[in-house]
Amino acid sequence: NLLLLTVVWVGEYDEWLLPLDGRLPQAVLDAHNEQNVAAGKVKGRLVAVPQQADYGVMFSRTDLLTKYGYASPPTTVEQMDEMINQIVPQERKSNPNFLGVSGQIKAYEGGTCNVLEWLLGENAGIILEPDGTLSSLDQSSPTGQRAISVGRRWRDWARRGWILLGQDEWPSMREWLRGNVLFHRNWPLVAVQTRQANVGFPWVMTRLPGNVGTLGGWLWGVSKYTKNPDAVLQVLQFFLSPEFQKIRTVQYGSPPTAKVLYNDSDVCAALGDCTLFRGINIATRPSGAAGKNYPQVTKAIYNYWVDIVNGVGTVEGKLGAMNREIARVLNIDVLGPPTNISISHPLALAVVVL
């Protein structure tokens, strides 16, 4: 009757899910973060609702920031770039393995999560927007130019050897726990791992530069074949209640989606820092816009962006190839609708001459 779906499965299971628009009280949905609710929509239709959230976050070595005169972690990529340039060369004199950034820069789903954070953090779109458009298709547009800038920055960091490449969550976390990283991108669970490891340095968990974080987490869907839709919807409303989400958060540490809980002292104690998650700008993976084709879309994103970071081809060439691949998979007309031109237009005159 009820299906528990990771956020990127929503589009794939769309045709087997009961549409929820109008089936749940609007007040119940309004109690949750709007972006978490939006993650359950496919082409504008609500087919799943939040169970819990998870967001990409950043861990920073506060001892090193203080040592080099920085009062707090970076809030912009420009600040992050400055700190890396100042700190990494100096620290490498005593620790040749020291890195500026470790994250999940690898050809898998975690790579897509990282890429979307880099882009949204610099106002460069999320590649495939909720309305099905490709935000960086036109590389001459402001968004396209910013996407190119993001690619060049990360390629430069990789060229200098300042970022960890080819690792997923756990191996990249191990470098952080060893003290070999200035900034580490991962999920909130790393805070627990870091505390349990009793690392020999002070640290802090904050939002990523640009106040962004890719949405992880899970959602509830209802099978459209259920024979008891009314009863299932009642259970679903209970699962959506702040009371139930609070129990999960306090027991398991999973970030809730009910907004009121970020003012709850018990919840904030379990999470460690409610202000970090309150009002975060969510980078939503385009599973809703891609639907059942999402596996092919995310593969295009992480493969081409790994090439960009690793210095394969040009940033512009790889960005264009990625957009064309996604357009092919989703049958997006990259040329736009047909346009009539006058007989005096240069193109028309050229055709006449030919």
Describe the structure.
It holds the Pfam family SBP_bac_8. InterPro entries: Bact_solute-bd_prot1, SBP. Keywords: Signal, Transport. This protein has helices spanning 26-30, 34-38, 62-67, 77-91, 109-121, 142-159, 169-177, 189-197, 229-240, 242-252, 265-271, 274-277, 287-290, 294-309, 315-330, 346-353; strands spanning 2-6, 41-42, 45-46, 48-52, 57-61, 99-102, 181-186, 203-206, 212-214, 218-222, 281-283. With 354 residues, the chain is an alpha+beta fold. The protein has a domain at 2-55 and 215-279: Periplasmic binding protein-like II (D-Maltodextrin-Binding Protein, domain 2), CATH 3.40.190.10. The protein has a 4-stranded mixed sheet. Strand 2 (41-42) and strand 3 form a beta hairpin. Helix 5 packs across helix 14, helix 10 (242-252) runs parallel beside helix 11 (265-271) and helix 14 (294-309) runs antiparallel to helix 15. The longest helix has 18 residues, at 142-159. The chain is flat. The termini are far apart. The model has no long low-confidence stretch (mean pLDDT 93).
